[in-house]
């Protein structure tokens, strides 16, 4: 694959579209496979049917959980690469930032194992990005308030 410096503007526009199409198709295959496997498991396990009916676990969250697990595997593989190996990965600009393109293949049995882990482990949940963002915003707000009051306290001490 050519690097950005050799890409015409047209190629630069098409590559992200192709990448997104591939991601969409891959995701559809993942959803279809997990749906079929979950149906098989439910048919053979009334406990799983009860878990799903309770609303505590959903297929949508299962897909997110499995996707996060796969992303962690890919990230670990990238982190274990040597500098020369990283340099050979294709690069492109995404929203004006340099990005290294990397991916990986995860065996279907591993995906199904993660799905079962999600369904049966009460502590297995995908990352709640909204809650995480709220937690960070709340922490920043508390820090700003703390700094404001410390500043007022210090100013009061200086005036006395």
List keywords for this structure.
160 residues; mainly alpha; two-stranded antiparallel ribbon; flat
Note down, in words, how this protein is organized.
With 160 residues, the chain is mostly helical. Helix content is 72%, strand content 5%. It contains 6 helices and 2 strands. Strands 1-2 form a two-stranded antiparallel sheet. Helix 1 crosses helix 2, helix 1 packs across helix 3 and helix 3 crosses helix 5. The termini are far apart. The mean pLDDT is 81.
How many helices?
6
End-to-end CA span: 69 Å
Computed CA radius of gyration, to the nearest angstrom: 23 Å
Average per-residue pLDDT, rounded, comes to 81
What portion of residues is helical?
over 70%
Bulk shape: flat
Largest sheet composition: 2 strands, antiparallel
The share of residues in extended strands comes to 5-15%
Tell how many strands the DSSP assignment holds: 2
Secondary-structure element string: HHHHEEHH
In spatial order, strands of the major sheet run 1-2
Low-confidence stretches: none
Structural class: mainly alpha
Reconstruct the topology from this structure.
Blueprint: H1 9-44, H2 46-54, H3 59-79, H4 83-88, E1 91-94, E2 97-100, H5 108-120, H6 129-159
Antiparallel strand pairs: 1-2
Helix pairs in contact: 1-2, 1-3, 3-5
